[in-house]
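ingest -> validate -> predict -> emit
validate: passed (alphabet ok, no gaps, 225 aa)
predict: started
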Amino acid sequence: MDIYLVGGAVRDALMARDADAAASSHVDRDWVVVGATPEAMAAQGFLPVGRDFPVFLHPQTREEYALARTERKTAPGYHGFHFHTDPGVTLEDDLARRDLTINAMAVAAADAEDPASARLIDPHGGQRDLRERVLRHVTGAFGEDPVRILRLARFAARFPDFSVAPETRVRGPLPRLFGGPRNPGADAPDGGTRRSGPPGGRARLAGTLTRPHGATAQPHVRGAA
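emit:
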């Protein structure tokens, strides 16, 4: 059994280091467990809370630990996914299902207290995109989940100095959401990587589209933050 810190906690630690600032001590931490089964997690005192896929609460910290998983689109809508978990699913498999490259980085649990100084597991170039201030989807599966598109809107408002990558902006409804051209670079002298649309509009969008109407809150969101 191998445990990794993933997602937003790693991203924010790297951003704080690059800005020469202290990382927040209140960031939510998400963990991925590789090489384990639900039975093995329960035997160690973890409390199962995931309804659609195996997510557990740590018996002391109450932080979320999710078994590494893959997913496949099987039907329309937010719930139209089939999840696969077994001890053979790798960390790289799990990172590939995440929304943005800046959220698809990980460090070993032993290095979790100082992720910015740890050996970074970054198969999709998230650290590069952090340096270049780019929001970029990980794989073509990004457009299959409407929640990922809404999360992109939230990140665009949260990080106003980031641009949306042209290959991400032209997927599905994103040109309408961000005011970007359907032909990337058509009106952007820098090749289409600049941020499109008025910041105020993007902020209003991100503030209102946090979850699809009628969707039930999940203990662990796909492509977590």
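Strands lie at 2-6, 30-34, 47-48, 55-57, 64-67, 70-73, 81-84, 106-108, 134-135, 163-164.
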